Amino acid sequence: MNEKQASSSLTRRSALKAAGALVLSGTGLFFSQAWASPEVEKALEGLIGSKRPEVSPRLKLHLPEYAYDGSRVPFSVEVESPMTESDYVRQVHVLSERNPFPRIATFHFTPRSGRAFARTRIRLAMSQNVIVVSELSDGSVLTTSKWIEVTLNGCKED
Amino acid sequence: MVTPTIRVKSPTEAKRGSVVEIMTLISHPMDTGLRKDKEGKVIPRNIINKFLCVYNDEMVFKAELHEAISANPLIQFNFVAEQSGTLELIWHEDGGQVYTTTRELRVL
């Protein structure tokens, strides 16, 4: 009787573990991201389909930690890449978590770009995460994000 | 419609194979379609939605811009100078207007 109980509890434990692992692998990094707001997810689905972006330190997102005026926040992004015909960065999508429109910009690069770098100025409505998703020529998708504090809404005020 | 002022910072000469940096600025309100004027009427959306850089008839850089790009959009990017030629910078505005400018680059 004791033996039977022990074995049944073991199987139940392992079954629970397996279920847990399944849930974790199924949702993966994508949903564990703090920024996964429904608008961003929808926009991302339109851009990269069902692919799951991988958080990577190869993406460098330069954004101040704090911006008083959200109407022109300096922004630049660089992806570490050799930028050769066989290995280069195709696209970099910039998304915002809490702006009225989730898409900020998409930069397209070619091996002739030499450097996967772009700089611009962006509008941010409030404190939020700015998300960068990069598509590489080998089909992999990398991402990173950065939190920024914004005082004045850059989308409605002058 | 005011013709936008375009400013471009680009080198006139570059070593073969070196990465050159181009900085562009175009004066444009980038109206998002969310703001209202003094009478409370919505200012319709009017933005620069696309920027292209063509070098010797080959596209080297493209940017799709949305409402969240600041007024007077600044765009800085790089490309590899392989041979001397003409750099063509093209801005597409909502409604189909296109603004272009060219710069010569001599590769040594």
The CATH topology of chain B is what?
Immunoglobulin-like
Determine the N-to-C terminus distance of chain B: 41 Å
| Rg on CA atoms of chain A, Å | 21 Å
Count of structural domains of chain B: 1
> How many structural units, i.e. domains of chain A?
2
Low-confidence stretches of chain B: none
SS element count, helices of chain A: 2
Q: Number of helix segments of chain B?
A: 0
According to CATH, the homologous superfamily of the largest domain in chain A is SoxY domain
Structural class of chain B: mainly beta
Q: Could you give the distance between the termini of chain A?
A: 77 Å
Count of beta strands of chain B? 8
Order of strands, widest sheet of chain B: 2-8-7-4-5
Written description of the protein model:
The complex is a heterodimer of chains A (158) and B (108). Chain A folds into two domains: 32 residues; 119 residues, Immunoglobulin-like, CATH 2.60.40.2470. Helix content of chain A is 27%, strand content 38%. Chain A has two helices and nine strands; from the N terminus they run ααβββββββββ. Chain B has a single domain, classed as Immunoglobulins (Immunoglobulin-like, Sandwich), CATH 2.60.40. Chain B has no helices and eight strands. In chain B, the strands form two sheets. In chain B, strands 2-8-7-4-5 form a five-stranded mixed sheet, with no helix packed on it. Chain B has a three-stranded antiparallel sheet with strand order 1-3-6, with no helix packed on it. In chain B, a hairpin with a 4-residue loop joins strand 7 and strand 8. The termini of chain B are far apart. The model of chain B has no long low-confidence stretch (mean pLDDT 90). At the A-B interface, strand 6 and strand 7 of A face strand 5 and strand 6 of B.
